[in-house]
Amino acid sequence: MDxxxxxxxxxxxxxxxxxAPIIKSEPKPPPAAAPAAAAKPKPIDGAIPKKVKKEVxxxxxxxxxxxxxxAYKEKLKEIKRFAKIEKQQKKEKKKAKKEKEAKKRQREDSxxxxxxxxxxxxxxxxxxxxxxxxxxKATDKTQRLxxxxxxxxxxxxxxxxxxxxxxxxEHGGVAFPEEYVPHGVKMxxxxxxxxxxxxxxxxxxxxxxxxxxxMHLGNPKTAKIFINNFFTDFKALLxxxxxxxxxxxxxxxxxxxxxxxxxxxxKAITDGEKKMNKKIKDQINFKHGYxxxxxxxxxxxxxxxxxxxxxxxxxxHPKMGKxxxxxxxxxxxxxxxxxNAPPICPVPGxxxxxxxxxxxxxxxxxxxxxxxxxxxxxxxxxxxxxxGKSDRSKYNKAARLCGNIEKIRKDYKKNLTAKDxxxxxxxxxxxxxxxxxxxxxxxxxxxxxADTVGCCSLRVEHMTFNxxxxxxxxxxxxxxxxxxxxxxxxxxxxxxxxxxTNNGMGEQVYKNFxxxxxxxxxxxxxxxxxxxxxxxDHLKNLMPGxxxxxxxxxxxxVTLQDxxxxxxxxxxxxxxxxTQKVTNYNDANRIVAILCNHQRTVSKAQETALETIQxxxxxxxxxxxxxxxxxxxxxxxxxxxLIPKKKSETEMKEAVTKALENAKKMKEEAKSNEEKIAxxxxxxxxxxxxxxxxxxxxxxxxxxxxxxxxxxxxxxIQQWTQxxxxxxxxxxNKDDNKEVSLGTSKINYMDPRATVAFCKRNEVPIDRVFSxxxxxxxNWAMSVTPEWQFCYEIGLxx
DNA sequence: CGAGAGACTTAGTAACTAGAGC
DNA sequence: GCTCTAGTTACTAAGTCTCTCG
Length: 798
Hints:
The protein is of the alpha+beta class and about 800 residues long. Among the domains are: about 1-40 and about 140-380, Beta Complex (DNA Topoisomerase I, domain 2), CATH 2.170.11.10; about 385-555, Topoisomerase I, Chain A, domain 3, CATH 3.90.15.10. The protein has helices spanning about 15, 35-40, 50-60, 65-110, 140-150, 200-210, 220-240, 255-265, 270-290, 385-415, 420-435, 495-500, 505-515, 530-540, 550-570, 580-595, 605-635, 650-670, 675-700, 710-735, 745-750, 750-760, 770-775, and strands spanning about 170, 185-190, 190-195, 250, 290-295, 295-300, 310, 325, 335, 355, 365-370, 375-380, 465, 475-480, 485-495. The protein has a 4-stranded mixed sheet with strand order 10-9-11-12, with no helix packed on it. It has a 3-stranded antiparallel sheet with strand order 1-5-6. Strand 14 (about 475-480) and strand 15 form a beta hairpin. Helix 4 (about 65-110) crosses helix 9 (about 270-290) and helix 18 (about 650-670) runs antiparallel to helix 19. It binds a DNA duplex (22 and 22 nucleotides) through strand 12, helix 10, helix 14, helix 15 and helix 19.
């Protein structure tokens, strides 16, 4: 890893550049240079501006070339150097291996009973002389930065002045995506080639890159919206009087093929190039990925400016497909402390739009996107102190709800039967938010956004009374699209024990809903008197700081804790393995995820994978039947020559090896793009062949090349029984969980301290339930005792 | 008081990568 | 040692909630 200080932007930034009140970047290149530069060969990856000093010497080395071309040449050189070193290392390794084998052969040739070389006499171990402190194990810069961040325990540090988030803050600003480099591949209109300007070509390329079977174009309804929006923006780019008028006549096939080819070229990347790319990525990361806040290193969450493209709104978003424009530095605001040097604008000839020094907000950068006119922010990462503090106080607030929940439930229980309709609606909504864990559901403009709802915006059409035609039941089917257009579809039985015992008031809620829906149109609001602010204001009166979303956090955390406690009470709990305990934890997690309606869409690939497992399972079952028949032959003294034999696999194996070797060779030798594409194609073919060979092997795995013995057959039957059992369990698990997303509740809803305490009580390593990033995000929660409980008292900590 | 700006949290999906399994 | 898959991370859309302003 390069440790030169030119890639450390922050600590040395202040020292390196004089503080300037107005931000200006390097002088703008003459406008005529821009299109010319675009036509130049594209650098392999994000071009890192070289030092001025180096540029001068390079300019002498390559007279007549532009800076970009020089940078490109230099990069190529470096890649070649890497490749050379790698080749050399391989050669040496091979040589060493050869020598070792030769020696081995020599020993074997001498009859195997060779005389061992007399062992060299061991030198007496030198007495270590302590020369100073032990040298730390070599670590790379990323690791050292991670250690530095870990060393800062914000929960022990003094807090900034009231209302302020920080006292000093400096950072490297946002990184911008590379300028668009035209590929020159034409689109066709009505069978004819169309010339496009780089800007138009870029837009056409966005469309060409869309997955035809993806979530936008794969669905006829959304595809129509997407294409309409795209084409409107595209036509605006083409200008008035342009021959392109009808989307149906547009053909982007050539461009999509070109994109496919580019992907293949990228796949055929050598190890040297991979290393080079990683190095470049690291450098950008060091430059923009860290901030210094009140003297501590903090990780930045998002420092890459969102690149232009098509807007991918979810569900039936009315604006999906519109072109998301490229954001220029002039549109971006930077926020940092006044005494620090401003981040350098990385785009030559441009400057930041505005400079702020506002310590009351967390954001480092801010810009507006052109689709919905919404603000976007550059912020610190989830593991930072900013996020950690707000996360902890979120969970503590939810814990305080433990001590207030009885009072709140009493309050809405009383109001459920109030004479005032508004009060009854308020109480009913509170019941829904508490018991069904729905979001509050703010008002939405369906011309601008997808039509999704939450509690306050529920409409009559979302409720079906008596869906099962059972007049005695108090059942209601709730069906609507929630956040991210995720379907919520549940039949609520208000008469069930779940909603009637412990002051559940299920029957009353059912009555209220019936009452609120009568005499209304389908498109009318159920709670016409209620808004999120009325609801939240009321909640605030019951408990300071309380809002609707706290109920989701509270319910998720309490549910997790209760479910875990239930599991830990099982008699044989202590004898369970760590893996079994983790499975139990995941089961509890799943209950929370279902409560919060956290879903994921099953992708085509996942669906195919499931089908493959099912097919394999079917094969195994068939094979077991065959094995049983063979065993019968033994038992009944039948003709053993009838036992089917395994066909030779050698030929196929050899073909596969040959194809794979050939593809590898092609990949290594590929220089031009055409060769790289050919290599990737050959590789795909070889892998296909290998898969076929694997399938064929699997289909006769139960057989033998020679006649088996009875015990061999019996053994195999036992093996197959176990295999079938394992595979069906696996399939069932995968099928049950394919649509539930466990991650969201783990990241946002369940108090991490409950998980940490569970792990400590049960000697489950924390990394079995929290990934690296989650452990970093929840670093403040790691020190709790095994007895820790999610309760009112812990909420009083801050 | 309501609308909307502004700030921050919550969310699913696409892309990437580590490590289990052959 | 290599591949494939499951788990993880990056990305950015879509919510909630507070505060200000007219």
